[in-house]
Design goal:
- The chain is an all-alpha fold.
- Helix 2 runs antiparallel to helix 3.
- The protein is rod-shaped and about 80 Å long.
- The termini are far apart.
- The mean pLDDT is 86.
């Protein structure tokens, strides 16, 4: 149960733990330390790609909404028929 409580909860925490492990192995086993660093970098790059995709999606949505607003502002006012 104690191991479950110490499980990393975010990518940042995982990257931090990988780098911390790599630091421990730098003097003892350089190839293993390099492997830990590579894994940390892969996680960071994957996270960057995900963030870029989210930003691209939001920019596209923002563009569509801006066009809709512009169309409504440029359209002639419609008469409402209140009875």
């Amino acid at each position: 149960m104690e191991n479950l409580l110490n499980f990393p909860i975010s990518r940042a925490h995982i990257v931090y733990n990988l780098v911390k492990k790599a630091n421990k192995f730098e003097e003892i086993d350089k190839p293993l330390a390099i492997r830990f660093y590579k894994e940390a970098l892969k996680l960071l790059l994957d996270q960057r790609k995900i963030q870029d995709e989210k930003v691209r999606s939001l920019m596209s949505l923002n563009h569509v909404l801006a066009l809709k607003i512009r169309q409504r502002l440029e359209a002639p006012p419609q008469e409402s028929s209140d009875v």
